[in-house]
Task: structure prediction
Amino acid sequence: MTRPIYVGSLCIGGDAPIVVQSMTNTNTRDVDATVTQIRQLEHAGCELVRVAVPDLASAAALTHIRERIGIPLVADIHFDHRIALASIQAGVDKLRLNPGNITDPKKIIEVVEAAAAAKIPIRVGANSGSMAKEYLDKDGHVTAQGMVASAMAQVRLLEAHRFEQIIISLKGTDVPMTLAAYRMMAHEVDYPLHIGITEAGTSWEGGLRSAVGLGVLLEQGIGDTVRVSLTGDPVEEVRVAYAILRALNLRQRGITFRICPTCGRTGIALEKIAIAVQDAVRDLNVRLTVAMMGCVVNGLGEAREADVGLVGATGRATIYVHGEPAAVNVAEAELIERMVSTIRDLAGGNQP
Result:
């Protein structure tokens, strides 16, 4: 078990639930746009949010952002220690820092001392896209061993200044290499691990690559906080993260859907119905299982185990609630509306 590290009142590590986080893609200097996106992320279930802080003007905006959001705020800092100091002064809850690109030891000490005084942790680590040459292999390629060595050099640097409020990441684009790096690191230290597959891609391929990588690590008990790195709307990162955690029974936020792949026995337009129902209840934050099946072969069993079930026939279907028929022989044209109303009625007052 890793040691617990607190980011504001949020615990990462120890026996705390795995924390879902994301990163904004707005211009941080645009406070209104950044706050709007963070609130959208909060609504989707994001528990920790990081913003890029490339300059002092962005750091100055952090105070105004922090006071308008409800989840801990992380400042992403590179190269200039003054930006890190200004971000701490602005009241952020955590730094994502790369001591490797702030080369003056005195400047690193300044940042570490300021973070210690403010009682905020620092995330350090390696990213396969920005590895220093001394950690590459003889052919100039990134390796799992090099990623661990790079991250450990940063950890030892902070520890040398008696700073141990550390979270470590080892993000690579190559899934097997990233898995190997995290496994090595899990045997080296007891600091919490921030896991992710970096630059995973757009929603479809990036979601799949992230599911494979994160799923393997999480099933092995590695990982205390996750970010699914996708190109596009960061809200999708949070949705995918929770889908991965739900699949492993690690977190149960939101509705779990079980939908059959369809075959020649399917007598209704199940794909169209399923997509419409999912979209219509996406806003619900309740623990429900919804099964939508095209025929009775597996349909009756799935409906029996679900909170809400749909079992198709030819041009019609039966809707089940807690395994019992609630609406029999519903016409196909009415199924979307009836399923949505049934789910919402069952959700009732269970929403936060």
Remarks:
- The chain has a mean pLDDT of 94.
- The longest strand covers residues 324-331.
- The chain is about 40% helix and 20% strand.
- Residues 63 and 90 are 5 Å apart (CA to CA).
